Amino acid sequence: MKLLEETLRSIEPAAPEFRRRAETRILNFAMPPWALGRLLDLAVDLAGITRSETPPVARKRIVLMAGDHGIVEEGVCPQPSSITAQAVRNFVRGGGGIGVLTREAGAELTVADFGVDDDLSDLVRAGVLVDCKVARGTANFSRGPAMSREQAVAALENGIRLARELAPETDLFGTGEMGIGNTSPSSAIIAVLSGVDVRSVVGPGAGLAASRLDHKAEVIRRGIECNKPDPADGIDLLAKVGGFEIGGIAGLILGAASLRKPVLIDGFISSAGALIAATLSPAARDSMILAHGSAEPGHRIMAATLGKKPLLDLGMRLGEGTGAALAMHLADAAVALLREMDSFEHADVSREGLQ
Description:
By secondary structure, this protein is an alpha/beta fold. It is 48% helix and 9% strand.
C-alpha cells in the first residue's frame, strides 16, 4: 500500500492560474470568441494539467493492459478467454486496430500483461510485453470476489509503476485494454457507483446476442448482491467485481496525475478504470480527458459520473485504446492553436462587432 498511499497524497488538482492564462490567450485569438468550441476547452484543460501555457503533447503513448476474467464461464460473452492471449500476441506485432491508429497518431504503444490466463513469458523476454501480471485471470465474481484486496492493490501499484517508468519519455498518455469478458466487471462498477439498475448499463460487448443480454445482466446483478462492494472504497470495489487490467488502468491514471501528465481515457473499460481512480482520488479527475463516447449503453452514465464530456462520438466499441489514439490528433491541434494562432493585434484584425 505504500506506493499507492504516496501517490494519492501527491495528486493535486489542475492549476487554475494556467487555465486562466490559456483562456486569456484564446480570447485574444483573431476570431469570434470561442469559435473553435471543444478544441479550445481541450487546450485549457491541457494547460491546467501540465502547468504550461504551451502544453507538451508531442511524445504520445498508448498503454494497453490485458487481463482475463473468470466471469466468462457464466456465458456473458460469445468468445473464449483464449482470445485475450491471441490478441496480445497480435498487438505486440503491431496488429489490430490499435496498431494502425497508434502509428497514424505518431504515438508509441506499450502492451502490458496484468492478468492474462496464459504464459506470455516469451514476449516478456523478447522485450515486447511488460510483465505486470498479478494472477492468471480473476475469479468468477458472480460466485465470490474477483480478487483479494491485496491483489487489487498490486494491480493499482503496478499501473502506478508503469506510469512512473514511462513518464520520462511520455508527455501524453492514452489508456487501452484487452480482456475477453471485461465489459461485465465494467458494467458492475458503474452500476455500483451510480445506483442504476444493472440492465440499463449492460450492452453486447464484443458481440453478445441481444437475446443473452438479460442473462448477462442477471449474472452481474448476482455478483453485486453476492459481494456487496462498497462504492466509497475504490479498492474494495475493484477487488469484489473488477479486473486486473481495470486496476492497472486506474493505477496508470493515478500515477500520471501525480506527475501532472494528461491521460486520454478510451471507452467503456478504460472509463471503469477511471472511475476507480476517481473514487480513490477525486483530484485525479482533472488529469482525465474522455477521448470518445463508447457505443456501450452504460458509457453515458460513466461519463456523467466522471463529470466528463467525450471529445469524439463515432459509435465505436472496439476498445484497445483506439478512441484515445484518435483523440491524440485533437490534442496536437489544440496545442498548435495555443502556440501559433494570431492575436487580433498581430493579425491586424479589428474586434469591431464582436461581443
